[in-house]
Amino acid sequence: MGEIREPTHVMLVFFSAQGHLNPMLQFAGHLSSRGITTTLATTSIGQEGILKGGTRAVLEAEGTIKFEFYSDGWDSRVPIVHLDDYMDKLEIVGSESLASLVEELAANGRRVSYMISSPFTPWVVDVAKKLEIPCSVLWIQSSLVYSYYYRVYGGLGANGEVPVNLPGLPELKLEDLPSLSLPSNPYKSFPRILTQLYARLGDVRMVLGNSFDELEPEEIRFVEGLHPIRLVGPLVPQALLERSQPAAISDLRRDMWDASPQCLTWLDSKKATSVVYVSMGSLLVMPPKQMEEMAWGLKASALPFLWVAKPSENSSNTTGMPEGFLEEVQGQGIVVPWCPQAEVLSHPSIACFVTHCGWNSTLETITAGVPVIAIPEWTDQPTNAMLLVEVLGVGLRLRAGPDGVVSREEVAKCITATTQGAMAEEMKTKAWTRKEAARAALAHGGSSDRNIVAFVDDVMKSGHSQGPG
């Protein structure tokens, strides 16, 4: 009898945050639909949020996607005040805990044959190397930011001087650069982490990117000496792609917060392309003054709006809204703490998206074909805003005044310009074109589909002869 070949098992390791979970989960779905068993591994601090609502049971019932958690050495009862302290402990404790998890799985008949690391856990590459398991990296930001960071942290000697001139792009000003690369960056662990990542790329088989060739052509992402990036995106919920999928990835998502059930019902009552959708993502909370200006700017626009707003944890105001605002806009808009963004963006009532320009939200709005109003804050968001507004031409960027706050007049003006008139129609046409390109990239034979197939082939060839067992 022939030798029984054990299943190919890929472990995807990621930092426990919503913006990191989303692309990893979607990519796990793509692998699962091609017959590969996948395990999503993250720190124990994210366990409660990820597993609420029975998602683990639902996914594991399919038999191909599982969740596992390893220790980060942090007491979940103690709030993380200094992120640098947490990242330092995560590297020390997480390395040992993850290695123990992999060995435990092997002892229980679930040998890991291939590992994928997120950019912000570069020590995973060392763990994989020690265990003799092939490893790749899934870069979860734009490939433009990947190549820019290499210029800063990969030994090319770029020192953050502006303006920056890169192939295929307009001149990058200070306001366009990722905040983690600037002297003002308060999180000193991240430059070290990115430096470690680029130093380890010689030990990885592939760098996969959550983007697609038609969005970021080679001239934008190429840097001499940098490990080439293979684009496998957009890694977005399948609802945005409007095509049938295998059961393993047809409804693959996990939010760490409960979505308000009224969002979609309320949108159903609105006219086509009439609603302004506002969300600053899973981490950011607007300062009170900016919250106030955004609120009254939305009211002044006179358009219906759906606003996802999380109040500050330190605020006694449970909604975070300025006094009297909710009463003033009753009948015009609704404010909710969280919503199912993929379904909202694909709803026909949505006219534009006021966004912080996190990369997941950027890809989701591109895939949905919705114009944007950009209000970036930190990390890669300013660069993404530049890409959306100046390169793709699918939106406008809100401009702050001398006090650093975007005024209500600026909010209302940009909403009008994005939803009415010839410029609005042009942005809508460009957004629609990008939407079609995003879907074509993941269609059978598309650029990202071909890269996923090439990666699966590499996993199948390299993953069976190595690893602890």
UniProtKB/TrEMBL annotation:
Coiled coil: none annotated. Its EC number is 2.4.1.-. One of its GO terms (cellular component) is cytoplasm. It comes from the Eukaryota. The keyword Glycosyltransferase applies. Keywords: Glycosyltransferase, Transferase. Pfam families: UDPGT. The keyword DNA-binding does not apply. InterPro entries: UDP_glucos_trans, UDP_glycos_trans_CS. One of its GO terms (molecular function) is quercetin 3-O-glucosyltransferase activity. PANTHER family: GLUCOSYL/GLUCURONOSYL TRANSFERASES (PTHR11926), GLYCOSYLTRANSFERASE (PTHR11926:SF1441). This is Glycosyltransferase.
